[in-house]
Amino acid sequence: MSEIAIKDIIKTENLVYKKTSLMTDKPLSYCPGCGHGTAHRLIMEVIEELGKENDTVGVAPVGCSVLAYEFMNVDMQEAAHGRAPAVATAIKRLWPEKIVFTYQGDGDLAAIGTAETIHACNRGEKIVIVFINNGIYGMTGGQMAPTTLVGMKTSTSPFGRDVSLMGNPLKITELVAQLPGTYFVSRQAVHTPAAARKARKAIKQAFQNQIEGIPGLSFIEIVSNCNSGWKMTPVDANNWMVDNMFPYYPLGDIKVNGELVNK
Amino acid sequence: MGELRLMKGNEALAEAIIRAGADGYFGYPITPQSEVIEYLTAAKPQDRTGMVVLQAESEVASINMLYGGGATGKKVVTSSSSPGISLMQEGLSYIAGAEIPIVIANVVRGGPGLGDIQPAQSDYFQSTKGGGHGDYRLLVLAPSSVQEMSDFVPLSFDLAFKYRMPVMILSDGAIGQMMEKVELFDQIPRLTDQEVKDKYPWATNGKPKGGERRVITSLDLDPAKLEQHNYHLQEKYRTIEQNEVRYEQIMCDDADYILVAYGSSARISQKSIQLLRAKGIKVGLLRLITLWPFPTMKIQELVQKGIKGFLAVEMSAGQMVEDVRLAVEGKVKVAHYGRLGGVIHSPEEVAEALEQKIIGG
């Protein structure tokens, strides 16, 4: 058998995957095993596929994805902690033809920014919110998040989340689904190729809604892992997520075409 | 001559916002400036110019709406009163850091805390020294009439875009609520989207075809780079201190003493000058129009000219007086007079304070 040189393999007809040009070449700053990179890529692929590269403004949060604007190759704004929905509201109101999205973690969206989240949803702002829920504050070193599960140990709940002291994990996605202003609400994950494909479909639907000018906000939650913060290997973190996060935060569409999905 | 109307200061501000060609107003009601958003919602600016008006869920949201809108190159503005402005300090710090042009009006009321709803000038520190975290400045204009509530709106937008920074119109409950004749300027057309794109290439409103994406942020995790960014901001502030100081001198030419005041206190002080001059005391008024940049050089020039003393007149416990003292550098007497908590001083009280604290003291 003769030797096959790499240059013979790298041919257009052999290409099965290409990184979207809407991701910059900057190496991701996320921990190996983290879901952020996949989520970023799915959003950027969708924007590219929909041909909106030159008509999109994204808003990055404070948290692990504070540097999302380093990786997403579209016009980006970096918001103050929790304020992305307010920032995005004004962008969309002033440039109704543009595609506007926020990318927010659980602390950003469901703790410090709860008011901005609820009110942007309630006003039915025609934007996309992508919400990454990993149940912990990754950036600041693994503190308790509003979505931290009961009994889950974090650096500020070292003996586990105690409901009597710390309240229950907040299902903010179910909460915003109740508001008439939301049009499409879906909860997805990106830990397997099959899950990522479903997540991509939901993200695309969300952006499609905005392009079509459908009245109402599209809200996509992605339940993700934080192997560093959870102090697990990436594989263990994914398994733990499936066993513990998914039962409390079940995957699937919650609201479609403005109607709650009956389960 | 422009259109003449009898208006409240707050109404004149609102009408001027529309006429200045603003693209968006985002605000939250608070006394004594709620007339601004009431006027704007009633005046249907959407039909007149296409301007967006939105009542936000809080002042925190409104200032962040300004962040988002301003960062796309649109002319955006909010208004509030003291407690609401306190809530906006986080956003203002981000806006200053990210170099976004915005205009914000503060119709000051008595504090601290919930305070009251009467006119005060006790937000001077918060307005001129930064207010939020980090090293930054707001360019602060102080109207002392309903006319200036209108005139300072287009001026504020011009300065905000010239320097890419937040500009504050600092008035008070008296200027906001009182009615005066105002000559309105003619409608300035809003820029088209294309004009915004052409004029402000830094703005994030969709990556140019074949061009580089733009990023608006106040974050730089590399301390060496953040230091450079801070030097850049400081350099800009030095330029502004050179070029944008504004004030009005009233009867300063032959004066032995100077009252330094702005806004409502400047109006009151004009009467005090008359009272004092009737007694043979030669007093002038230096009315500040920009509070930052502060007219340090002008005050030093007046000291050189032989002014014997300065009385800082402000409805606060003595905030602006600190800048007067810094300018005077101990060379002549400087004192403060002002009532607190929403109480307005009378011209007689001011005149008496000059006689007691400066001439007699």
Task: Please explain how this structure is put together.
The complex is a heterodimer of chains A (263) and B (361). The radius of gyration of chain A is 19 Å and the shape is globular. Helices cover 37% and strands 18% of the residues of chain A. Chain A has one domain (30-135, 144-156, 167-260): Rossmann fold. Chain A is built from eleven helices and ten strands. Chain A has helices at residues 6-9, 36-49, 68-71, 84-94, 106-112, 114-123, 163-166, 172-177, 193-211, 227-230, 234-248, and strands at residues 56-60, 75-78, 99-105, 128-133, 136-137, 143-144, 182-189, 217-223, 252-256, 259-260. In chain A, strands 2-1-3-4-8-7-9-10 form an eight-stranded mixed sheet, with helices on both faces. In chain A, strands 5-6 form a two-stranded antiparallel sheet. Chain B folds into two domains: 3-194, Rossmann fold (3-Layer(aba) Sandwich); 247-359, 3-Layer(aba) Sandwich (Rossmann fold), CATH 3.40.50.920. Chain B is built from 15 helices and 15 strands. Chain B has helices spanning 9-19, 35-42, 45-48, 59-70, 82-87, 89-98, 124-128, 146-163, 173-177, 193-199, 223-243, 263-278, 296-304, 320-328, 347-359, and strands at residues 3-8, 24-27, 52-55, 76-80, 102-108, 139-141, 166-172, 179-184, 215-216, 247-250, 257-261, 283-288, 290-292, 309-313, 333-337. In chain B, strands 3-2-4-5-7-6-13 form a seven-stranded mixed sheet, with helices on both faces. Chain B is globular, with a radius of gyration of 21 Å. The termini of chain B are far apart. The A-B interface holds A 53-57, 59-60, 66-67, 69, 73-80, 83, 86-91, 93-95, 98, 115-116, 119 and B 23-24, 26, 52, 54, 56-58, 60-62, 64-69, 71-72, 74, 76, 90-91, 94, 98, 193, 204-209, 213-219.
Structural class of chain B: alpha/beta
**Overall geometric form of chain A:** globular
The overall strand count of chain A is 10
In total, the number of domains of chain B comes to 2
CATH topology group of the largest domain in chain B: Rossmann fold
Helix count from the secondary structure assignment of chain B: 15
Q: What is the number of E strands of chain B?
A: 15
Low-confidence stretches of chain B: none
The share of residues in extended strands of chain A comes to 15-25%
Indicate the radius of gyration of chain B in whole angstroms.
Answer: 21 Å
Strand order of the largest sheet of chain B: 3-2-4-5-7-6-13
Strand order of the largest sheet of chain A: 2-1-3-4-8-7-9-10
**What's the main sheet of chain B like?**
7 strands, mixed
Domain count of chain A: the total is: 1
Major β-sheet profile of chain A? 8 strands, mixed
Can you name the CATH architecture of chain A? 3-Layer(aba) Sandwich
Termini separation of chain B: 48 Å
Series of H and E elements of chain B: EHEHHEHEHHEHEHEHEHEHEEHEEHEHEH
Helix content of chain A: 25-40%
Report the span from N to C terminus of chain A.
57 Å
CATH topology of chain A: Rossmann fold
